[in-house]
Design goal:
By secondary structure, the chain is of the alpha/beta class. 19% of the residues lie in helices and 31% in strands. It is built from 6 helices and 16 strands. Strand 15 and strand 16 form a beta hairpin.
Length: 263
């Protein structure tokens, strides 16, 4: 049984403030959401895999040595709407009681992630307003070492493409194990995606029918396999997607393809 560590796609609303990560807030109402339920269920649908789904703020608050423990325990990492600051900063930097008079540093989670993938941990990097370059550049993945293990190239400007009418998918490498037997053209309208560029040495296996931009890309980095889906596996971009009858098959096959790289 493979173990998956899935970061992101949770949100908390406190009063009028809607918080998806420690750094980004909008005003919407009061509630608590786990938008990752659908993807977690899809990964676990075969009964062969176990998923730990954690809010982005839990990942951000990991103390020294704790992310190393995660990397030692889990076979696959999933990051969805997890902007670069959550890798690069630590809450202790902002807690004056912990400053002391000695240099305050922590292990670099970007470096640790890249080294883990190159060493054989597999990964998915999934889209959203805080993924890839993201809204107003907030995603920031392409400005960090994460770019070395992404099977796409991030833009240097805001990369969101939105449509209330939605976008549809189409296969490019229709025999690839991730999408074999999956009718991407039957996907319901996807309400937005991150614009990226293909990366040399990696494969675009599906694209957006309306624009030709990459939808799914895969690559091998050292011993690790990586898949990028350039939209959100959850609402709001994916609010129709999560109810698609091909949803579980697509994500189950994507996970199986990553894990095939272990053998």
């Amino acid at each position: 049984m493979a173990k998956v560590y899935y970061v992101g796609d949770w949100a908390v609303m406190l009063g009028p403030v809607f918080a998806e990560t420690p750094f980004n807030y909008t005003h919407k109402g009061t509630e608590i959401f786990n938008y990752g339920t659908w993807l977690k269920e899809a990964f676990e649908s075969t009964g062969r895999h176990e998923v730990t789904s954690v809010p982005t703020w839990d990942f951000y608050r990991l103390g020294p040595g704790e992310f190393e423990d995660v990397l030692a325990e889990y076979d696959v990492l999933v990051f969805s709407d997890v902007e670069a600051k959550n890798f690069q900063l630590a809450p202790q930097f902002f807690d004056r009681s912990k400053f002391g008079n000695q240099p305050l540093t922590f292990p670099d989670r970007v470096r640790l992630t890249v080294e883990a993938i190159e060493g054989g941990t597999h990964a998915m990097f999934l889209g959203g307003w805080l993924s890839f370059n993201g809204e107003m550049g907030k995603g920031g993945w392409g400005r960090t070492g994460l770019k070395n293990v992404l099977p796409v190239t991030c833009l240097e400007i805001e990369d969101l493409r939105e449509s209330t009418e939605g976008f549809t998918g189409q296969g490019v490498a229709v025999d690839h194990p991730v999408i074999a037997g999956v009718d991407l053209e039957s996907m319901p309208p996807i309400l937005g995606y991150n614009i990226v560029k293909p990366r040399k040495g990696c494969d675009v296996i599906a694209s957006w029918k309306e624009t030709g931009d990459p939808l799914l890309s895969v690559g091998q980095f050292g011993k690790g396999r990586v898949l990028s889906y350039m939209s959100d596996p959850a609402p709001h971009w994916g609010c129709n997607f999560v109810y698609w009858d091909g949803y579980q098959k697509l994500w189950s096959q994507a996970l199986d393809w990553l894990l095939d790289g272990t053998h």
